[in-house]
Amino acid sequence: MKILKFLMFNRFVRLYLNSDFYFLQWNKRIKSTILEMWYTLSIFFPFFIILIIPIFFIGNANQTNFVWTDFLLSIPFSLMMIILINKDIFGGQSPVHRLLGLQVVDAKTNEKATKVKCILRNITAPLWPIEAIFLLANPKRRLGDLIAGTSLIEVKPSDPELILTEIEDFKFDNQAKLTFMITVILIIIFVIFSHQRLKPW
């Protein structure tokens, strides 16, 4: 848990979370979306640096070892995808949501969204430019919310580090198993898609 705490809330990350971002004050939803992306990148960046180093020793994509460089490049981006699509499964609140006082709920019942709904709403996270357009047109629900049947409501802000307690108490129930399966499938699709995009002609 100490390692996880360091990765999620080290000095660099906390400096970022405590920034005011005045230029985003005009729209809380867009602010949340942008901060979520950058927060994920701030966690993901050390993995990218560590895993990108071997590529310089293996060679470039025009050589026969392209498959290995392609594989190494897909690892850090896959890790980022895992974080992005699972960020809300703990109580419907990611660290950024806790900081801003937001929570993902079922659009019909207004109850805390299930793990599966939370992960479904985030499958569109990589399409953030499209999500930004949706938020400008409909500030209450983005594209992912429409797909998952969720919405984001305002709640009392809390300490982002409280998510560590929920992670520690996490139980691998049926919802969690289904969430895990969806994550694996999405990552496989992502890796295959990335491989096709990076494949030399």
Automatic annotation (TrEMBL):
Keywords: Membrane, Transmembrane, Transmembrane helix. GO terms for cellular component: membrane. Residues 28-195 form the RDD domain. It is a multi-pass membrane protein. The chain crosses the membrane at residues 38-59, 65-85, 178-195. Its main location: membrane. It comes from the Bacteria. It is found in: Membrane. This is RDD domain-containing protein.
